[in-house]
Amino acid sequence: MLDENNKLPAEENNSTSKTTENLNDEKAVVEHAENTKSKPIAVEDNVTKEPEPTIKEGAGTNNKAVDEIESKIAESSENDDETAIEHKDYSKLSLEDLVAELAVLVKEHKVQSISSNVNSIKNSFNVKFGELLKKEKEKFLAEGGNVVDFQYNNPIKSTYNSILYDYKIKRNEYYAQQESKLKQNLQAKLDLIEELKHLIDNADGATMYKLFKNIQDRWREIGPIPRAKYNDTWRTYHHHVERFYDLLHLNNDLRDLDFKHNFEEKLKLVEKAEELAELDDINLAFKELQVLHKMWKEDIGPIPREHRDEVWGRFSEATKKVHDKRHDFFKELKSKFEQNIDKKLEVISEIENLDFLSNKTRSDWQKSIKEIEKLRKKFFEIGQVPRAKSDQIWSKFKQATRKFNSAKNKYFKEVKKAHLENLNAKKLLIEKAESIKDSEDWDVATDIMKKIQADWKKIGHVPQKYSDKLWRQFKDACNHYFDRLHSKQDAGNKEQLEVFNKKKELLTEIKESAESKDEITLDELKDYVNDWRELGRVPYEMRHVEVKFNKLLDKIVDSTDIDKEEVEMIKFKNLVNGYLEQKDYRKLDSEQLFVRKKIDEIVREIQQLENNIGFISNVTEDNPLVKNVRDNINVFKEKLEIWKAKLEYLKRIDY
């Protein structure tokens, strides 16, 4: 097996280097050359004029596995060897951390070595930002926004896009330079082949071996070349290397030493290939087998002719086993892709059968949108289909969703039109309220202002971006008028001052009664509230006595078994009736707004908890975590019912 850096084990590398040292011992080579200097080198005419070869090692073996391996090696021939960058679990990083990690990779590492890391970061970022975008959209729609008005900008996305743009620029520059470098390296190797051919044609026993080893060293030092030229270039070079060794018949000791070393090294590669053929990890075996073939071709020279067919046969047979296992693996994978066709068509059919034409309200459409999103997610989670069917399936899917999107967009365009009409209607009411907010004709102005407030409630939604501003303008105009009215009504109101004193006395009486009794019943509590309300209203600046009364009720309830929900409604009705008696319509409006906000908050809390349960998989209902979430949902639902009851009570009031 190869180690993690695709290199031979240390002991094998050591043995290789020792043999190479012997072969490159310049002194030994020169001395041997001197001994054979006077002997002529026999070079046959047909050797020097032989055409460039087009066959592979092991000619006559029809092995598609070898063809595939050589094709893959050719593809990888253009790539420089780069130290792998640590591949983190980017799915666990936040958006900010992902952007920071991307910035470090692009700034501090070579662009050709970070492609896999960048792609993983892109995938994680897109998923996380998509989830964030979905939440923001749901929040926008929950607050009454129109889906066609939704926009979301986040500085982290701009920073991410900027860094990604820098990466693409650097990557393009690198590949432009790489193309030029590949051509230069190819020419350098072709020049070495010509030099080798010249060496063979003009063989000199005294110097040819040393020159040959120099050519071999320079060949290995040359970097990557274009993949389209890789195999033919190597075959040509290998052919002439074998021609050279054929010339060394007078220098048998040098040639045999090389052959022996090469034979040993190729046997090691054969054994490693045979081990890879037994691996279960198909992709790893195929990847490492490519490394072995590249070493076979580029790092190790010819072996004795009597062993070539046998060694190559074993090597190619191991290659065929890996190839066949990989072929079976992808055949099985293709079968799964075929099954995905039916699964995706089923989802498309569900989309086509979705009933959305009867949708009348925003709530109806929001429900349909969630159903469509659920089906879209299901469609994409199914996985790939065969490439030949991919476009057809995708076209059907788009056609199925296009009908829904068209109807949805039509509805929301109509909603947007209605919102604009509501916007203009509310602006007119604001103008009318502001025109009478300083009126001294109290009876007439009060009736008009009440009418304006009633008309305001009848008007529907307006675009979200205008809603708060319009409400503040309207509320300020109404409050301005009613504050003036209340100020006038409260001036010198001796009757209300008397009410205040009576309520203080009643407060003391209730407190003493509560302290003297073991338990106060609900009916008694209701009597206290009725007595309190029948006394009437207190001066505006003395309303703190109402707060004390409510606190005393809370204290009584906490010390008894009285149903807190019923008490809550008793207190609320008392509060609202107090506002009515004081004709404090501004407070009533504010109370209604507050109740609606509380309902919205509790609904969102319940939705969030229910979504959380949806993310908890493979657990039973008695799981402590699930039970805790269920208990929280029930608590919020109980609170929701109380707030809804309060809202219904406010709606029934005519003021």
TrEMBL record:
Compositionally biased tracts (Basic and acidic residues): 1-10, 24-37, 46-55
Keyword tags: Coiled coil
Cleavable signal peptide: none
Positions in coiled-coil regions: 592-646
Record InterPro entries: DUF349 (IPR007139)
Chain intervals with Polar residues compositional bias: 12-22
Disordered: annotated span: 1-66
Protein name according to UniProt: DUF349 domain-containing protein
